[in-house]
Amino acid sequence: VEEFGNLDGSSLEKLCDVVKPAVFTERSYIIQEENPIDQMLFVLQGKLWTYTSRRVTELSSNSGNLNNHLEGGDFSGEELIAWAKAGHNSSNLPISTKTIQALTKVEAFVLMAYDLKQVLLNIDN
């Protein structure tokens, strides 16, 4: 995640302390369109599909490729960084514009929104 590149070692360590491993079964929904985004997802293994209710989205993954899949090395939920940086005044989570569903068993790390916010708020203090 590009924004995390600006963090010092101590701040990165704090983020690592709150990241949790997660396993999603095939066909499970991770994030649904029009629901609050409550986590960042860092995919280790497996494949996910991203789409909207209107049609499949072409989303730019962090690898720079346009596709509608996420797989090992990809992430989602970067909208939470701007939300977390907005500070104490932002309590409403951003709303997802897409659904993310596991196509296979997925192993990932999850960073919950309020954990991210707490770490970023402590950096500024």
Automatic annotation (TrEMBL):
<keyword id="KW-0407">Ion channel</keyword>
<dbReference type="GO" id="GO:0030552">
    <property type="term" value="F:cAMP binding"/>
</dbReference>
<feature type="domain" description="Cyclic nucleotide-binding">
    <location>
        <begin position="3"/>
        <end position="125"/>
    </location>
</feature>
<dbReference type="InterPro" id="IPR018490">
    <property type="entry name" value="cNMP-bd_dom_sf"/>
</dbReference>
<dbReference type="GO" id="GO:0016020">
    <property type="term" value="C:membrane"/>
</dbReference>
<keyword id="KW-0142">cGMP-binding</keyword>
<keyword id="KW-0813">Transport</keyword>
<keyword id="KW-0406">Ion transport</keyword>
<dbReference type="GO" id="GO:0030553">
    <property type="term" value="F:cGMP binding"/>
</dbReference>
<dbReference type="GO" id="GO:0005516">
    <property type="term" value="F:calmodulin binding"/>
</dbReference>
<keyword id="KW-0547">Nucleotide-binding</keyword>
<dbReference type="GO" id="GO:0034220">
    <property type="term" value="P:monoatomic ion transmembrane transport"/>
</dbReference>
<keyword id="KW-0140">cGMP</keyword>
<keyword id="KW-1071">Ligand-gated ion channel</keyword>
<protein>
    <recommendedName>
        <fullName>Cyclic nucleotide-binding domain-containing protein</fullName>
    </recommendedName>
</protein>
<dbReference type="InterPro" id="IPR014710">
    <property type="entry name" value="RmlC-like_jellyroll"/>
</dbReference>
<keyword id="KW-0112">Calmodulin-binding</keyword>
<dbReference type="InterPro" id="IPR000595">
    <property type="entry name" value="cNMP-bd_dom"/>
</dbReference>
